[in-house]
Amino acid sequence: MLPATSNASHSTIVLRVHIRFDVPADPAYPGRVAEVLSGVRLRKYTKIGAVLAAVGAIGLVVSRGTGWGEHVSPLFIAMVVGGALSMLYAPWVRFNARRRSSGYAVEGGYEITDDNILMRSGSESGGIAWDGVTQVTETPEFWIVYVGPMPATVIPRRYMSDDDAATLRTFLTDRELI
Fold it and tell me: Are 110 and 21 in contact (CB under 8 A)?
């Protein structure tokens, strides 16, 4: 980490960030990443499913006391079943993502600077410029980096030092990303 510097002509503080850390070949790590990213993308299915199931259940209860209840109850039953299946879809996808990705464990690393996030995994590498990042959300284990409305990558906290994590948090706050 480089110290904060001041530009005398503008009197603004520029935080210089240079964080580098390695990620070991942990078989559980790719599964945790896949679970977090798929959970973010699939959250809407759980919400839609809960609404469908609730409306279907209310419809069943209300229709029981009416003369037309037997005609519409199949619709409400379908709503309850569809809602339940929709709520189960996200956990099923996360389970499969975790199960399949455990074979992808390779050593990697991150290098985070003022300009971008560079990631390497095995022989592959890639990066994301901070200018393209629209927001960052936090979980207990990761910072989830969004490019547009979709999560693009995660930054693991587990492999960073406490000082580097605090520096990154300050950097993200200063850029109004969290």
Answer: yes
